[in-house]
Amino acid sequence: DQQVKQNSPSLSVQEGRISILNCDYTNSMFDYFLWYKKYPAEGPTFLISISSIKDKNEDGRFTVFLNKSAKHLSLHIVPSQPGDSAVYFCAAVKNNAGNMLTFGGGTRLMVKP
Amino acid sequence: KAGVTQTPRYLIKTRGQQVTLSCSPISGHRSVSWYQQTPGQGLQFLFEYFSETQRNKGNFPGRFSGRQFSNSRSEMNVSTLELGDSALYLCASTSGAHVEQFFGPGTRLTVL
User: Which residue is closest to A5 within chain B, CA to CA?
Assistant: First the structure.
């Protein structure tokens, strides 16, 4: 049972435009959601997180939106840059489950110059 | 501050052998988690250690085990290796004050 899903395996965007990566979840008990970026042969790098009691969090070019009623979150990257090309994972965690992250399957973002 | 370090970075073993992977967390971080990444199953949680105690365990067989030392360094062990254990094994640490976990570069294990 996949509790966190990223339905788009890949996304291609032109440099300077907006990238929107989507994530759906089934477990309403998640307390935090996180986005990570991963390059090949490296560990995931933390980008941004959002608490389940908020609907938006911004950090520079990255904004995460949370729609609890739809159990959906999205990561917006504006403007997209070629260096943003990587695999993006969304993850979720429950406060009463320690630091156990449940990951989605990832979306490969390609930003074309 | 130095990041999370993992050793070795690459490892080749044969079926039936056992392997030990090591992780040094960021200084001051007391929680260490381990994850397995495979093309078929994605990133899956193995276990978490906090103050030398296993706090959470994922859905993996008993061949996968771990421990944490008093300096927060952690090791994971896989016994009786199977071909399906070939994966990237990632370690992450957190201070506990914030939700984000910081990952090491991983150990690429190949089982032949």
Answer: B42
- The owner of tokens 């959601």 is A33
Measured CA to CA, the distance from residue A93 to residue A34 in angstroms comes to: 8
Of A32, A100, A106, the CB nearest to B48: A100
Helix/strand/coil for A85: coil
CA distance B65 to chain A (A): 16
- Closest CB to B43: pick one of A97, A99, A103: A103
Peptide bond connecting B8 to the previous residue in cis, omega within 30 degrees of 0: yes
Burial of A62 (0-12, 13-18, 19+ CB in 10 A): middle
DSSP E strand boundaries for chain B? 5-7, 10-13, 19-24, 31-38, 42-50, 53-57, 64-68, 74-78, 87-94, 102-103, 107-111
Residues in chain A: 113
Sequence-distant (≥ 6) Cβ neighbours of residue A49 within 8 angstroms = A32, A33, A34, A35, A57, A64, B99, B100
Q: What is the average pLDDT value for chain B, to the nearest integer?
A: 94
pLDDT band at B1 (very low <50, low <70, confident <90, very high): low
A42, A44, A99: residue with CB nearest B94? A99
CA B26, CA B7: separation in Å to the nearest integer? 14
Say yes or no: A44 contacts chain B, CB-CB below 8 A: yes
pLDDT tens for residues B21-50?
999 999 999 999 999 999 888 899 999 999
Angle CA A34–A18–A23, to nearest 5: 35
Looking at the DSSP bridge assignments, the partners of residue B78 are B19, B64
